[in-house]
Amino acid sequence: MQSHHIIASILFFVVMALSPLCPESSNGATQSPPLSSGGTAERNETSVNEGPQHDSRSSLNPPIDCPLRKQGINPHDLKPFEDTQKYINFLDRSDRAVWQKPDAVIRELHLSGAERIADVGAGSGYFTFRFARALPEGKVYAIDIEPEMLRHIHHKAMTEGVNNVEVIKSTPEDPKVPAGVDLVFVCDVIHHLKEQELWLKKLATQMKKGAHLVVIEFKEGDLPEGPPAAVKIPKKKLIAMITKNNFKLEMEKSDFLPYQEFLIFIKP
Description:
Shape: globular
CATH topology of the domain at 112-266: Rossmann fold
CATH class of the domain at 112-266: Alpha Beta
Number of helices: 9
Order of helices and strands: HHHHHEHEHEEHEHEE
Radius of gyration: 24 Å
Helix content: 25-40%
């Protein structure tokens, strides 16, 4: 009889040892999978070449929270991937690099690699992922008013293993730049704003002393790229508007890009 009790005890401890440690999240609710097209989770088939699969329930591999859900965005309200792909393709088209010179622009900023940068109006992440590569010890906040663009950036960061990008949803009135960023990058955004000065004033309150603001906007004139002339901001007016809202012009690189002004300000 005593041996039977010993065997039963051993079996009990074996079963307990094999039980999963964290079947649910800390609040008792099952974590939602990352967003994908149509708000559904895509399941990838395992192949022999993919290596070991991670158990999301393990304390060593906790479930990943969706940043859009955390910011109150319902994934079921978003347009499917296919509906925004045309605009993403337009922003990421290969010929854009000829005149936008994204890699040269980033080199011209002389980054140390540890900065925290806010890419405001990130769109498809055209500059976001280039900044991420240039900041091995830093971080990029991809900020945009369009949740579909943020979904695209988040999905790309997840699938490509980019760990230093975080998405933030802003509003037309509030850039939502996190405290402590070293540089705010704004490319072809200000001319879209209805309340440009109010937006700049809000931005200034969110930036620390000594932080830089990089502004790229299309030049005046009849150009093969850019918005209609009616919405372009003359350089003199652009500089005056920005400096009026607690920024100081530090560097002007008007000849660097063929179709755009390239201005660097500092928050005094």
